[in-house]
Amino acid sequence: GEWIFIVCTCSRASVPKRRCVYHVSPRNHQYTQAGRVSGSVQVCETTSCCVGFFWMMDGQQKVDLQACDMYEQSCPDKSCTSHPHFNKIIKCVCNTDFCNSNMSWSSEEEEEEEEEEEEEEAVGSPDVTMRTTIAVLPMVLLFLMVCFWTAAKRGRSFYQHTKENPYCDVSVNPQCSCQEPNPSTIDHALIELQQVVGRGNFATVFQGTYKGFAVAVKCFPGGQEEKFRAEKEVYELPLMKNAGIVLFLGSGTKPHDTSFFIVMQFAEHGSLHSFLSQHSISWTSAFNMCLSLSQGLSYLHSDLQLNGVHKPSVAHRDLSSSNVLLRADFSCVLCDFEDSAVLCSCVGRQWGRSHTHNVQGGPAVGTLRYMSPELLEGEVNLTSSSFMFQGDVYALALILWEVWMRCSHLFQDADVPQHLLPFELELGPNASRERLIHHVCSMNQRPSIPPPWDLLPEGCDVKRILTDCWDSDADARLTASCVVNCLMSLQSNT
Ligand SMILES: Nc1ncnc2c1ncn2[C@@H]1O[C@H](COP(=O)(O)OP(=O)(O)OP(=O)(O)O)[C@@H](O)[C@H]1O
Protein backbone atom coordinates (compact mmCIF):
# COMPACT_ATOMS: atom_id res chain seq x y z
CA GLY A 1 0.00 0.00 0.00
CA GLU A 2 0.90 3.57 -0.46
CA TRP A 3 1.00 5.96 2.50
CA ILE A 4 -0.12 9.53 2.20
CA PHE A 5 0.91 11.92 4.95
CA ILE A 6 -1.07 15.06 5.39
CA VAL A 7 0.26 17.79 7.64
CA CYS A 8 -2.12 20.61 8.34
CA THR A 9 -1.62 23.69 10.40
CA CYS A 10 -4.73 25.71 10.92
CA SER A 11 -4.69 29.11 12.45
CA ARG A 12 -7.88 29.77 14.34
CA ALA A 13 -7.25 33.45 15.10
CA SER A 14 -10.48 35.33 14.64
CA VAL A 15 -10.34 37.63 11.64
CA PRO A 16 -12.76 40.57 11.38
CA LYS A 17 -15.44 39.85 8.86
CA ARG A 18 -15.27 41.47 5.44
CA ARG A 19 -17.74 44.30 4.82
CA CYS A 20 -18.93 45.00 1.29
CA VAL A 21 -21.21 47.49 -0.39
CA TYR A 22 -24.57 45.82 -0.92
CA HIS A 23 -26.84 46.52 -3.86
CA VAL A 24 -28.77 43.52 -5.14
CA SER A 25 -31.89 43.31 -7.27
CA PRO A 26 -34.57 40.67 -6.50
CA ARG A 27 -33.34 38.47 -9.36
CA ASN A 28 -30.01 38.08 -7.56
CA HIS A 29 -31.66 37.36 -4.22
CA GLN A 30 -29.29 34.46 -3.53
CA TYR A 31 -26.60 37.00 -2.59
CA THR A 32 -28.60 37.92 0.52
CA GLN A 33 -27.35 34.63 1.91
CA ALA A 34 -23.69 35.62 1.59
CA GLY A 35 -23.86 37.68 4.77
CA ARG A 36 -25.86 39.87 7.13
CA VAL A 37 -27.32 42.89 5.36
CA SER A 38 -27.81 46.24 6.98
CA GLY A 39 -28.90 48.95 4.55
CA SER A 40 -26.24 49.19 1.88
CA VAL A 41 -23.66 47.19 3.84
CA GLN A 42 -23.23 43.42 3.92
CA VAL A 43 -21.05 41.68 6.51
CA CYS A 44 -19.74 38.54 4.79
CA GLU A 45 -20.36 35.17 6.41
CA THR A 46 -18.46 32.81 4.15
CA THR A 47 -15.96 34.87 2.19
CA SER A 48 -13.40 37.62 2.45
CA CYS A 49 -14.10 38.77 -1.12
CA CYS A 50 -16.41 41.54 -2.28
CA VAL A 51 -17.84 41.31 -5.78
CA GLY A 52 -19.15 43.92 -8.19
CA PHE A 53 -20.88 43.51 -11.53
CA PHE A 54 -20.94 46.66 -13.63
CA TRP A 55 -21.88 47.57 -17.16
CA MET A 56 -21.29 50.58 -19.32
CA MET A 57 -24.04 52.80 -20.66
CA ASP A 58 -23.24 56.00 -22.57
CA GLY A 59 -19.72 55.89 -21.17
CA GLN A 60 -21.08 55.69 -17.61
CA GLN A 61 -20.44 52.89 -15.13
CA LYS A 62 -23.74 51.35 -13.98
CA VAL A 63 -24.02 49.02 -11.03
CA ASP A 64 -25.60 45.65 -11.70
CA LEU A 65 -24.77 43.95 -8.41
CA GLN A 66 -22.62 44.63 -5.34
CA ALA A 67 -22.33 42.13 -2.49
CA CYS A 68 -20.15 39.67 -0.63
CA ASP A 69 -18.92 37.18 -3.17
CA MET A 70 -20.35 33.68 -3.17
CA TYR A 71 -18.47 31.89 -5.89
CA GLU A 72 -14.88 33.05 -6.47
CA GLN A 73 -12.14 30.94 -4.96
CA SER A 74 -9.73 33.79 -4.38
CA CYS A 75 -9.55 37.58 -4.68
CA PRO A 76 -5.93 38.77 -4.72
CA ASP A 77 -6.78 42.39 -5.73
CA LYS A 78 -7.14 45.10 -3.06
CA SER A 79 -9.37 47.26 -5.24
CA CYS A 80 -12.05 46.30 -7.70
CA THR A 81 -10.21 46.26 -10.99
CA SER A 82 -11.93 45.19 -14.16
CA HIS A 83 -11.14 41.95 -15.85
CA PRO A 84 -11.50 41.80 -19.63
CA HIS A 85 -15.01 42.38 -20.87
CA PHE A 86 -17.36 39.44 -21.29
CA ASN A 87 -20.15 40.66 -23.50
CA LYS A 88 -21.36 43.83 -21.81
CA ILE A 89 -20.95 42.93 -18.20
CA ILE A 90 -17.77 43.56 -16.24
CA LYS A 91 -17.01 41.76 -13.04
CA CYS A 92 -14.46 42.51 -10.35
CA VAL A 93 -13.61 40.89 -7.03
CA CYS A 94 -11.42 42.38 -4.31
CA ASN A 95 -10.32 41.81 -0.73
CA THR A 96 -10.69 45.05 1.28
CA ASP A 97 -13.69 46.54 3.07
CA PHE A 98 -16.14 48.27 0.68
CA CYS A 99 -13.70 47.81 -2.20
CA ASN A 100 -16.62 46.95 -4.51
CA SER A 101 -18.11 50.46 -4.24
CA ASN A 102 -16.85 51.23 -7.71
CA MET A 103 -14.60 49.71 -10.27
CA SER A 104 -11.47 51.05 -11.82
CA TRP A 105 -10.41 50.23 -15.31
CA SER A 106 -8.75 51.86 -18.24
CA SER A 107 -10.99 52.42 -21.23
CA GLU A 108 -10.22 50.57 -24.43
CA GLU A 109 -8.96 53.78 -26.03
CA GLU A 110 -6.58 54.33 -23.14
CA GLU A 111 -5.37 50.77 -23.46
CA GLU A 112 -4.92 51.19 -27.19
CA GLU A 113 -3.05 54.45 -26.67
CA GLU A 114 -0.84 52.84 -24.05
CA GLU A 115 -0.13 49.96 -26.40
CA GLU A 116 0.68 52.37 -29.23
CA GLU A 117 3.02 54.34 -26.97
CA GLU A 118 4.74 51.16 -25.88
CA GLU A 119 5.11 50.10 -29.50
CA GLU A 120 6.59 53.49 -30.43
CA GLU A 121 9.09 53.28 -27.60
CA ALA A 122 10.08 49.78 -28.61
CA VAL A 123 10.66 50.66 -32.26
CA GLY A 124 13.93 52.45 -33.13
CA SER A 125 15.25 53.79 -36.43
CA PRO A 126 14.48 51.80 -39.63
CA ASP A 127 18.04 50.43 -39.92
CA VAL A 128 18.10 49.26 -36.37
CA THR A 129 14.65 47.80 -36.86
CA MET A 130 15.77 45.83 -39.91
CA ARG A 131 18.89 44.44 -38.19
CA THR A 132 16.89 43.59 -35.10
CA THR A 133 14.24 41.88 -37.16
CA ILE A 134 16.77 39.68 -38.94
CA ALA A 135 18.45 38.77 -35.67
CA VAL A 136 15.34 37.90 -33.76
CA LEU A 137 13.29 36.32 -36.56
CA PRO A 138 14.54 32.74 -36.03
CA MET A 139 13.95 33.10 -32.29
CA VAL A 140 10.46 34.43 -32.85
CA LEU A 141 9.68 31.56 -35.22
CA LEU A 142 10.97 29.05 -32.70
CA PHE A 143 8.95 30.70 -29.94
CA LEU A 144 5.80 30.64 -32.09
CA MET A 145 6.30 26.95 -32.84
CA VAL A 146 6.59 26.17 -29.14
CA CYS A 147 3.50 28.28 -28.40
CA PHE A 148 1.57 26.60 -31.19
CA TRP A 149 2.53 23.17 -29.96
CA THR A 150 1.59 24.01 -26.37
CA ALA A 151 -1.71 25.56 -27.43
CA ALA A 152 -2.52 22.56 -29.61
CA LYS A 153 -1.79 20.26 -26.67
CA ARG A 154 -4.03 22.19 -24.37
CA GLY A 155 -6.67 22.09 -27.08
CA ARG A 156 -9.73 24.25 -27.24
CA SER A 157 -9.91 24.56 -23.50
CA PHE A 158 -7.14 27.14 -23.63
CA TYR A 159 -9.13 29.19 -26.10
CA GLN A 160 -12.38 28.81 -24.29
CA HIS A 161 -11.14 29.39 -20.79
CA THR A 162 -8.92 32.35 -21.44
CA LYS A 163 -10.42 34.10 -24.43
CA GLU A 164 -14.09 33.42 -24.76
CA ASN A 165 -14.59 33.29 -21.04
CA PRO A 166 -12.03 35.56 -19.50
CA TYR A 167 -13.54 35.24 -16.03
CA CYS A 168 -12.83 31.57 -15.72
CA ASP A 169 -10.53 30.88 -12.87
CA VAL A 170 -8.70 27.74 -13.90
CA SER A 171 -6.01 28.01 -11.28
CA VAL A 172 -5.69 25.33 -8.63
CA ASN A 173 -5.66 26.56 -5.09
CA PRO A 174 -2.71 24.81 -3.43
CA GLN A 175 -4.19 24.72 0.04
CA CYS A 176 -4.13 22.04 2.62
CA SER A 177 -7.35 20.53 3.77
CA CYS A 178 -7.89 21.33 7.43
CA GLN A 179 -11.21 19.68 7.37
CA GLU A 180 -12.75 19.09 10.73
CA PRO A 181 -16.01 17.18 10.83
CA ASN A 182 -18.85 19.25 12.08
CA PRO A 183 -21.08 16.53 13.52
CA SER A 184 -24.58 17.23 14.70
CA THR A 185 -26.45 14.24 16.05
CA ILE A 186 -30.22 14.29 16.07
CA ASP A 187 -32.33 12.28 18.47
CA HIS A 188 -34.69 10.13 16.45
CA ALA A 189 -37.45 10.61 19.03
CA LEU A 190 -37.69 14.30 18.07
CA ILE A 191 -38.55 13.50 14.45
CA GLU A 192 -42.07 12.82 13.29
CA LEU A 193 -42.19 10.97 9.98
CA GLN A 194 -45.03 11.54 7.53
CA GLN A 195 -45.32 10.29 3.95
CA VAL A 196 -42.61 8.90 1.65
CA VAL A 197 -41.49 11.52 -0.91
CA GLY A 198 -38.75 9.62 -2.68
CA ARG A 199 -37.30 6.17 -3.00
CA GLY A 200 -33.80 5.79 -4.39
CA ASN A 201 -31.50 2.83 -4.86
CA PHE A 202 -30.14 2.96 -1.34
CA ALA A 203 -32.49 4.99 0.82
CA THR A 204 -36.07 6.12 1.33
CA VAL A 205 -36.86 9.79 1.84
CA PHE A 206 -39.77 10.86 4.08
CA GLN A 207 -41.34 14.21 4.67
CA GLY A 208 -41.44 14.90 8.40
CA THR A 209 -41.19 17.48 11.13
CA TYR A 210 -38.34 18.22 13.51
CA LYS A 211 -38.76 20.83 16.25
CA GLY A 212 -41.77 22.16 14.36
CA PHE A 213 -39.90 22.57 11.03
CA ALA A 214 -40.76 20.77 7.80
CA VAL A 215 -37.87 18.42 7.08
CA ALA A 216 -36.93 15.60 4.75
CA VAL A 217 -35.52 12.50 6.44
CA LYS A 218 -33.39 10.19 4.33
CA CYS A 219 -33.42 6.72 5.90
CA PHE A 220 -30.69 4.19 5.04
CA PRO A 221 -31.18 0.53 5.96
CA GLY A 222 -28.44 -1.01 8.13
CA GLY A 223 -26.74 -2.59 5.09
CA GLN A 224 -26.13 0.85 3.55
CA GLU A 225 -23.98 2.25 6.35
CA GLU A 226 -21.17 3.03 3.92
CA LYS A 227 -23.46 5.13 1.71
CA PHE A 228 -24.83 6.89 4.79
CA ARG A 229 -21.34 7.72 6.09
CA ALA A 230 -20.18 8.93 2.68
CA GLU A 231 -23.11 11.32 2.33
CA LYS A 232 -22.93 12.52 5.94
CA GLU A 233 -19.21 13.23 5.55
CA VAL A 234 -19.90 15.60 2.66
CA TYR A 235 -22.69 17.45 4.46
CA GLU A 236 -20.47 17.84 7.54
CA LEU A 237 -17.62 19.50 5.66
CA PRO A 238 -16.91 23.08 6.76
CA LEU A 239 -18.67 25.87 4.84
CA MET A 240 -21.21 23.54 3.27
CA LYS A 241 -24.08 25.84 4.21
CA ASN A 242 -24.82 27.50 0.90
CA ALA A 243 -27.87 28.65 -1.02
CA GLY A 244 -27.17 26.04 -3.69
CA ILE A 245 -26.86 23.02 -1.38
CA VAL A 246 -29.77 21.54 0.54
CA LEU A 247 -29.51 22.57 4.19
CA PHE A 248 -28.25 19.68 6.32
CA LEU A 249 -29.63 19.68 9.86
CA GLY A 250 -28.00 16.58 11.31
CA SER A 251 -27.95 12.81 11.27
CA GLY A 252 -28.44 9.87 13.60
CA THR A 253 -28.92 6.18 14.15
CA LYS A 254 -32.26 4.62 14.91
CA PRO A 255 -31.90 2.88 18.27
CA HIS A 256 -33.76 -0.39 17.56
CA ASP A 257 -33.05 -1.49 14.01
CA THR A 258 -29.57 0.10 13.56
CA SER A 259 -30.62 1.96 10.45
CA PHE A 260 -29.34 5.47 9.78
CA PHE A 261 -30.92 8.77 8.85
CA ILE A 262 -30.01 12.20 7.55
CA VAL A 263 -32.25 15.19 8.27
CA MET A 264 -32.42 18.06 5.76
CA GLN A 265 -34.54 21.06 5.06
CA PHE A 266 -37.64 20.04 3.13
CA ALA A 267 -37.64 21.25 -0.47
CA GLU A 268 -41.27 22.24 -1.07
CA HIS A 269 -41.40 21.53 -4.82
CA GLY A 270 -39.59 18.20 -4.65
CA SER A 271 -37.11 17.10 -7.28
CA LEU A 272 -36.50 19.16 -10.42
CA HIS A 273 -37.39 16.07 -12.42
CA SER A 274 -40.84 15.70 -10.86
CA PHE A 275 -41.51 19.45 -11.15
CA LEU A 276 -40.55 19.62 -14.85
CA SER A 277 -42.70 16.55 -15.54
CA GLN A 278 -45.74 18.50 -14.39
CA HIS A 279 -45.05 22.12 -15.30
CA SER A 280 -43.82 24.20 -18.18
CA ILE A 281 -42.06 27.39 -17.07
CA SER A 282 -41.45 31.01 -18.04
CA TRP A 283 -38.10 32.35 -19.24
CA THR A 284 -37.47 34.00 -15.86
CA SER A 285 -38.19 30.82 -13.90
CA ALA A 286 -36.05 28.73 -16.24
CA PHE A 287 -33.26 31.26 -16.01
CA ASN A 288 -33.35 31.38 -12.20
CA MET A 289 -33.41 27.60 -11.97
CA CYS A 290 -30.42 27.27 -14.30
CA LEU A 291 -28.48 30.03 -12.56
CA SER A 292 -29.08 28.75 -9.02
CA LEU A 293 -28.21 25.20 -10.10
CA SER A 294 -24.96 26.31 -11.76
CA GLN A 295 -24.09 28.47 -8.76
CA GLY A 296 -24.64 25.51 -6.43
CA LEU A 297 -22.36 23.31 -8.51
CA SER A 298 -19.74 26.05 -8.80
CA TYR A 299 -19.77 26.41 -5.02
CA LEU A 300 -19.53 22.65 -4.52
CA HIS A 301 -16.50 22.51 -6.83
CA SER A 302 -14.81 25.47 -5.16
CA ASP A 303 -11.88 25.18 -2.79
CA LEU A 304 -12.32 27.85 -0.13
CA GLN A 305 -10.25 29.09 2.77
CA LEU A 306 -12.04 31.35 5.19
CA ASN A 307 -10.99 32.44 8.66
CA GLY A 308 -8.77 29.38 9.00
CA VAL A 309 -11.48 27.00 7.85
CA HIS A 310 -11.05 25.06 4.65
CA LYS A 311 -13.76 23.78 2.36
CA PRO A 312 -12.19 21.36 -0.09
CA SER A 313 -13.52 20.93 -3.62
CA VAL A 314 -16.23 18.34 -3.93
CA ALA A 315 -17.25 16.59 -7.15
CA HIS A 316 -20.87 15.46 -7.07
CA ARG A 317 -20.53 12.55 -9.52
CA ASP A 318 -24.22 11.68 -9.66
CA LEU A 319 -25.90 14.81 -10.93
CA SER A 320 -29.32 14.28 -12.47
CA SER A 321 -32.63 16.12 -12.41
CA SER A 322 -33.70 13.72 -9.61
CA ASN A 323 -30.80 14.85 -7.45
CA VAL A 324 -31.64 18.54 -7.79
CA LEU A 325 -34.39 19.84 -5.51
CA LEU A 326 -36.60 22.89 -5.85
CA ARG A 327 -37.22 25.12 -2.87
CA ALA A 328 -40.32 27.20 -2.25
CA ASP A 329 -38.85 30.15 -4.21
CA PHE A 330 -38.11 27.78 -7.16
CA SER A 331 -34.36 28.02 -6.69
CA CYS A 332 -32.42 24.78 -7.12
CA VAL A 333 -30.39 23.01 -4.45
CA LEU A 334 -28.12 20.00 -4.82
CA CYS A 335 -28.69 16.84 -2.81
CA ASP A 336 -27.64 13.17 -2.76
CA PHE A 337 -23.90 13.16 -2.09
CA GLU A 338 -23.47 9.41 -1.54
CA ASP A 339 -21.15 9.07 -4.51
CA SER A 340 -19.40 12.41 -4.17
CA ALA A 341 -15.63 12.74 -3.98
CA VAL A 342 -13.99 15.15 -1.56
CA LEU A 343 -10.82 16.41 -3.16
CA CYS A 344 -7.80 17.38 -1.17
CA SER A 345 -5.26 19.40 -3.10
CA CYS A 346 -2.44 19.33 -0.55
CA VAL A 347 -1.17 15.82 -0.84
CA GLY A 348 0.62 15.79 -4.16
CA ARG A 349 -2.15 13.59 -5.46
CA GLN A 350 -5.43 15.25 -6.18
CA TRP A 351 -7.33 13.58 -3.37
CA GLY A 352 -6.51 11.53 -0.37
CA ARG A 353 -8.79 12.17 2.54
CA SER A 354 -12.02 10.47 1.83
CA HIS A 355 -14.19 8.62 -0.60
CA THR A 356 -11.18 7.04 -2.21
CA HIS A 357 -13.23 3.85 -2.31
CA ASN A 358 -15.52 5.69 -4.71
CA VAL A 359 -12.72 6.77 -6.95
CA GLN A 360 -10.18 4.03 -7.38
CA GLY A 361 -11.09 0.87 -9.18
CA GLY A 362 -14.51 -0.35 -10.19
CA PRO A 363 -16.78 1.19 -12.80
CA ALA A 364 -17.57 4.90 -12.78
CA VAL A 365 -20.42 5.86 -10.47
CA GLY A 366 -23.47 7.92 -11.43
CA THR A 367 -26.72 7.65 -13.33
CA LEU A 368 -26.00 6.13 -16.75
CA ARG A 369 -27.81 8.57 -19.01
CA TYR A 370 -26.05 11.55 -17.38
CA MET A 371 -22.59 10.04 -17.72
CA SER A 372 -20.16 11.87 -19.96
CA PRO A 373 -18.71 10.01 -22.97
CA GLU A 374 -15.36 9.47 -21.22
CA LEU A 375 -17.07 8.06 -18.12
CA LEU A 376 -19.31 5.79 -20.19
CA GLU A 377 -16.32 4.39 -22.01
CA GLY A 378 -14.24 4.21 -18.84
CA GLU A 379 -11.53 6.26 -20.51
CA VAL A 380 -10.70 8.51 -17.59
CA ASN A 381 -7.43 9.25 -15.95
CA LEU A 382 -7.88 8.37 -12.29
CA THR A 383 -4.75 10.27 -11.29
CA SER A 384 -6.45 13.57 -12.07
CA SER A 385 -9.43 15.16 -10.35
CA SER A 386 -10.43 17.28 -13.32
CA PHE A 387 -12.31 14.44 -15.00
CA MET A 388 -14.76 14.42 -12.11
CA PHE A 389 -15.53 18.13 -12.44
CA GLN A 390 -15.77 17.80 -16.20
CA GLY A 391 -18.17 14.87 -15.75
CA ASP A 392 -20.31 17.03 -13.45
CA VAL A 393 -20.39 19.84 -16.02
CA TYR A 394 -21.52 17.42 -18.75
CA ALA A 395 -24.36 16.25 -16.48
CA LEU A 396 -25.16 19.89 -15.65
CA ALA A 397 -25.60 20.58 -19.37
CA LEU A 398 -28.11 17.74 -19.71
CA ILE A 399 -30.09 19.13 -16.76
CA LEU A 400 -30.01 22.68 -18.15
CA TRP A 401 -31.33 21.23 -21.42
CA GLU A 402 -34.18 19.55 -19.51
CA VAL A 403 -35.08 22.91 -17.92
CA TRP A 404 -34.93 24.94 -21.13
CA MET A 405 -36.93 22.26 -22.97
CA ARG A 406 -39.83 23.17 -20.68
CA CYS A 407 -39.44 26.92 -21.16
CA SER A 408 -42.48 28.34 -23.00
CA HIS A 409 -40.56 31.43 -24.19
CA LEU A 410 -38.17 29.29 -26.24
CA PHE A 411 -41.07 27.69 -28.13
CA GLN A 412 -42.87 30.98 -28.86
CA ASP A 413 -46.35 30.14 -30.19
CA ALA A 414 -45.87 26.39 -30.39
CA ASP A 415 -46.76 23.90 -27.65
CA VAL A 416 -44.02 23.18 -25.13
CA PRO A 417 -43.04 19.51 -25.49
CA GLN A 418 -43.70 17.25 -22.53
CA HIS A 419 -40.76 16.63 -20.23
CA LEU A 420 -38.28 14.01 -21.43
CA LEU A 421 -35.09 12.79 -19.86
CA PRO A 422 -31.96 13.29 -21.94
CA PHE A 423 -31.87 10.67 -24.74
CA GLU A 424 -35.31 9.33 -23.72
CA LEU A 425 -36.70 10.24 -27.13
CA GLU A 426 -33.90 8.49 -28.98
CA LEU A 427 -33.17 5.52 -26.69
CA GLY A 428 -36.26 5.09 -24.53
CA PRO A 429 -36.62 5.28 -20.74
CA ASN A 430 -34.14 2.50 -19.85
CA ALA A 431 -31.17 2.95 -22.16
CA SER A 432 -28.40 0.40 -21.61
CA ARG A 433 -24.74 1.39 -21.27
CA GLU A 434 -24.00 -0.20 -24.67
CA ARG A 435 -26.69 1.81 -26.45
CA LEU A 436 -25.58 5.00 -24.70
CA ILE A 437 -21.95 4.35 -25.67
CA HIS A 438 -22.98 3.86 -29.29
CA HIS A 439 -25.20 6.96 -29.34
CA VAL A 440 -23.15 9.38 -27.21
CA CYS A 441 -19.58 8.21 -27.85
CA SER A 442 -19.51 6.55 -31.28
CA MET A 443 -22.16 8.72 -32.95
CA ASN A 444 -21.29 11.81 -30.82
CA GLN A 445 -24.99 12.58 -30.38
CA ARG A 446 -26.41 14.97 -27.78
CA PRO A 447 -29.98 15.90 -26.84
CA SER A 448 -31.49 17.66 -29.83
CA ILE A 449 -31.85 21.44 -29.83
CA PRO A 450 -35.21 22.49 -31.32
CA PRO A 451 -34.74 24.53 -34.55
CA PRO A 452 -36.84 27.51 -33.28
CA TRP A 453 -34.12 28.24 -30.71
CA ASP A 454 -31.84 29.37 -33.55
CA LEU A 455 -34.30 32.14 -34.36
CA LEU A 456 -34.21 33.67 -30.88
CA PRO A 457 -31.21 35.48 -29.33
CA GLU A 458 -31.85 33.70 -26.01
CA GLY A 459 -32.13 30.38 -27.85
CA CYS A 460 -28.74 30.94 -29.53
CA ASP A 461 -27.18 31.86 -26.17
CA VAL A 462 -28.46 28.79 -24.34
CA LYS A 463 -27.49 26.56 -27.26
CA ARG A 464 -23.95 27.89 -27.04
CA ILE A 465 -23.77 27.25 -23.30
CA LEU A 466 -25.08 23.70 -23.76
CA THR A 467 -22.70 22.82 -26.58
CA ASP A 468 -19.77 24.28 -24.62
CA CYS A 469 -20.68 22.15 -21.60
CA TRP A 470 -21.31 18.80 -23.30
CA ASP A 471 -18.34 18.92 -25.65
CA SER A 472 -16.90 15.46 -26.36
CA ASP A 473 -13.49 16.91 -25.47
CA ALA A 474 -13.73 17.05 -21.67
CA ASP A 475 -10.92 19.64 -21.45
CA ALA A 476 -12.86 21.96 -23.72
CA ARG A 477 -15.92 22.07 -21.46
CA LEU A 478 -16.69 25.18 -19.45
CA THR A 479 -16.12 25.01 -15.72
CA ALA A 480 -19.16 25.40 -13.48
CA SER A 481 -18.05 28.91 -12.49
CA CYS A 482 -17.78 29.82 -16.20
CA VAL A 483 -21.35 28.63 -16.69
CA VAL A 484 -22.41 30.99 -13.88
CA ASN A 485 -20.59 33.89 -15.52
CA CYS A 486 -22.04 33.09 -18.95
CA LEU A 487 -25.55 33.00 -17.47
CA MET A 488 -25.01 36.27 -15.59
CA SER A 489 -23.86 37.97 -18.76
CA LEU A 490 -26.80 36.49 -20.65
CA GLN A 491 -29.09 37.96 -17.99
CA SER A 492 -27.63 41.42 -18.41
CA ASN A 493 -28.28 41.26 -22.15
CA THR A 494 -31.93 40.24 -21.93
N1 LIG B 1 -34.76 17.60 1.10
C1 LIG B 1 -35.70 17.05 0.32
N2 LIG B 1 -36.90 17.66 0.16
C2 LIG B 1 -37.85 17.11 -0.63
N3 LIG B 1 -37.69 15.96 -1.32
C3 LIG B 1 -36.53 15.31 -1.20
C4 LIG B 1 -35.48 15.80 -0.37
N4 LIG B 1 -34.42 14.96 -0.46
C5 LIG B 1 -34.79 13.98 -1.31
N5 LIG B 1 -36.05 14.17 -1.76
C6 LIG B 1 -36.80 13.31 -2.70
O1 LIG B 1 -36.31 11.99 -2.59
C7 LIG B 1 -35.75 11.55 -3.83
C8 LIG B 1 -34.56 10.63 -3.56
O2 LIG B 1 -33.56 11.33 -2.83
P1 LIG B 1 -32.03 10.94 -2.95
O3 LIG B 1 -31.60 11.09 -4.37
O4 LIG B 1 -31.26 11.69 -1.94
O5 LIG B 1 -32.13 9.38 -2.57
P2 LIG B 1 -31.18 8.20 -3.05
O6 LIG B 1 -31.66 6.96 -2.40
O7 LIG B 1 -29.78 8.59 -2.78
O8 LIG B 1 -31.42 8.16 -4.59
P3 LIG B 1 -30.40 7.66 -5.73
O9 LIG B 1 -30.96 6.35 -6.19
O10 LIG B 1 -30.48 8.74 -6.77
O11 LIG B 1 -29.05 7.53 -5.13
C9 LIG B 1 -35.41 12.85 -4.58
O12 LIG B 1 -35.40 12.66 -5.97
C10 LIG B 1 -36.55 13.75 -4.14
O13 LIG B 1 -37.70 13.47 -4.90
Question: Describe it for me?
Answer:
The chain is an alpha+beta fold and 494 residues long. 32% of the residues lie in helices and 18% in strands. The strands form 6 sheets. The chain has a 5-stranded antiparallel β-sheet, covered by helices on one side. Strands 1-3-2 form a 3-stranded antiparallel β-sheet, with no helix packed on it. Strands 5-4-6 form a 3-stranded antiparallel β-sheet, covered by helices on one side. Strand 2 (35-38) and strand 3 form a beta hairpin. The radius of gyration is 24 Å and the shape is globular. It starts with 18 loop residues before the first strand and ends with a helix.
Which key terms come to mind for this protein?
about 500 residues; alpha+beta; 5-stranded antiparallel beta sheet; 3-stranded antiparallel beta sheet; about 20% strand; globular; disordered N terminus; binds adenosine-5'-triphosphate
